[in-house]
Amino acid sequence: MPQLCLNSPLGALTLTEEDGSLICLDWGRGMFDEETPLLCEARDQLEAYFDRKLTAFDLPLAPPGTAFRQKAWAAMQTIPYGETWSYGRLAEVIGTAPRAIGGACANNPLPILIPCHRVVGSANGGLGHYSGPEGPGDLDSKRHLLRLEKAALVA
User: Fold this and answer.
1) In the beta sheet, which residues pair with residue 14?
2) CA–CA distance from 145 to each of 21, 38, 97, 104 (Å)?
3) How confident is the model over 86-104, as pLDDT tens digits?
4) pLDDT tens digits, one per residue of 99-136
5) Phi-psi region of 83 (alpha: psi -120 to 50; beta: other; left: phi over 0)
6) Is 138 left (phi over 0), alpha (psi -120 to 50) or beta?
7) What's the whole-model pTM score?
8) Can you tell me the distance from the alpha carbon of 102 to that of 109, in angstroms, rounded to the nearest whole number?
């Protein structure tokens, strides 16, 4: 499977492609670099996102996961740029429990592209969790992504 590494404000990221779709965005540097048209486009879109020039990704995504997780990840992609939804609100949208949404977020193979960072603990500002480059509980990365999006809306 082709992979491409890139640097970001959160550190190194590695994109993985399979059958013409992105299947994974890993924190850290992968072992291989191969510039396919899709991986280069994904890199360019991520760089534009981090530069506050892109608010929506237009990439073919095929994250591996259960039917439930696919449904949860699709719902996460409807959360508007710069907004947050609570686990409870997202759970209501797809008809499940907030804890199940937390599990889908924790197992999101395409963070940033599928914006699980926009899902927060509650409407009063509790961030919940995030599996960023520092591992589970990396709330600094989640805060960084949320601030980046809010700042881009103001600029």
Assistant:
1) 5, 26
2) 24, 23, 25, 19
3) 999 999 999 999 999 999 9
4) 999 999 999 999 999 999 999 987 555 777 777 766 66
5) beta
6) beta
7) 0.91
8) 14
Instruction: Tell me which residue has tokens 């994109």.
Output: 15
Question: Cα-flanking dihedrals φ and ψ of residue 96, to 5°?
Answer: -145, -170
Among all residues, which ones are annotated catalytic?
Answer: 116
Tokens describing residue 124: 């009063």
**Over the chain, what HEC string results?**
CCEEEEEECCEEEEEEEECCEEEEEEECCCCCCCCCHHHHHHHHHHHHHHCCCCCCCCCCECCCCCHHHHHHHHHHCCCCCCCCEEHHHHHHHHCCCHHHHHHHHHCCCCECCECHHHEECCCCCCCCCCEECCEECCHHHHHHHHHHHHHHHHC
Tell me how far CA of residue 85 lies from CA of 3, 54, 76, 104, in angstroms: 31, 20, 9, 14
Strand partners for 66:
none
Report the alpha-carbon distance of residue 127 to residue 105 in Å, rounded: 13
